[in-house]
UniProtKB/TrEMBL annotation:
Its EC number is 4.2.1.93. Keywords: ATP-binding, Cytoplasm, Lyase, NAD, NADP, Nucleotide-binding, Phosphoprotein. The lineage of its organism: Eukaryota, Fungi, Dikarya, Ascomycota, Pezizomycotina. ATP binds at residues 129-133, 148-157. It holds the Pfam family Carb_kinase. InterPro entries: Carbohydrate_kinase_pred_CS, CARKD, Ribokinase-like. GO terms for cellular component: cytoplasm. This is ATP-dependent (S)-NAD(P)H-hydrate dehydratase. It is found in: Cytoplasm. Belongs to the NnrD/CARKD family. GO terms for molecular function: ATP binding; ATP-dependent NAD(P)H-hydrate dehydratase activity.
Length: 241
């Protein structure tokens, strides 16, 4: 977030003033991704909290990843019960979120832990990243077990958050009926499909990148595989919309 060069000293330390230019842009946006590269600075987190509150008033979906998950952990009221929110914790982040809710993970297969945590957050969607990605809103739990690469590189989650944001943007286009369709998919089902689609695409990107780069794989290598991975998983429609 870039501050105005003309901002006063007090404005530069005022999270509401810093957040306002971003809030003013929200009507032109479809989805927010908060977290990658965010850091733990208190002023930045205060600023993000105000942006999130404004996004909720606009019923805007958002994805919290990386340091953005710290907001869900320390300020759970920001996401509590907001079903347009997706959290994307890895194993360590998942444990921290469970601890913040007083939940003792039980382990095992079937996604019971992620289901319990999603319920505790009031029905947000959680993508628990791991050997299999477990996706749950507390009611419906999906297992994304498409083969991925054999190396997980730091920053790989950025591909997931970007993919999730893209699918959520397409979800909004569907709900806004910018093309003719029967409208037989509801908001909740579409959000689950967006989460599953983002997970599947990322895992396929990882598989393709690892097949080329092996142990030298870096997170940035996944970006080069997005197009091929999309075609492998979803294909392209026979005619343009």
């Amino acid at each position: 977030m870039r501050q105005s060069p003309h901002a006063t000293s007090s404005e530069k330390q005022n999270p509401s003033a810093i957040a306002q230019p971003v809030i003013d842009m929200l009507p032109r946006l479809h989805v927010l991704v908060i977290g990658p590269g965010l850091g733990r600075d208190l002023l930045m987190h205060d600023t993000c909290a105000r942006v999130i509150e404004a996004a909720k008033k606009n019923h805007m979906p958002f994805v919290l990843d990386a340091d953005g998950l710290n907001l869900a952990q320390t300020r759970p009221e920001l996401v509590q019960g907001y079903k347009e929110c997706i959290l994307t914790p890895n194993v360590v982040e998942f444990a921290r979120l469970c601890k913040s809710k007083g939940i003792e993970p039980q382990g095992g297969a079937g996604g019971k832990d992620v289901e319990t945590l999603a319920k505790a957050f009031g029905g947000v969607t959680i993508v628990q990243k791991g050997k299999q990605d477990l996706i749950s809103n507390g009611v419906r739990t999906l297992v994304s077990d498409i083969e991925g690469g054999l190396k997980r590189s730091g920053g790989q989650g950025d591909t997931l958050t970007g993919s999730l944001a893209t699918f959520l943007g397409w979800r909004k286009a569907y709900l806004d009926k910018i093309w003719d369709h029967e409208g037989d998919l509801g908001e909740e089902e579409l959000l689950a499909l967006a989460a599953f689609g983002g997970s599947s695409l990322t895992r396929e990107c990882s598989r393709l990148a690892f097949s080329k780069k092996g142990r030298s794989l870096q997170a940035s290598d996944l970006t080069e595989e997005v197009h091929g991975a999309f075609l492998n998983i979803f294909g392209e429609p026979s005619s343009r919309l």
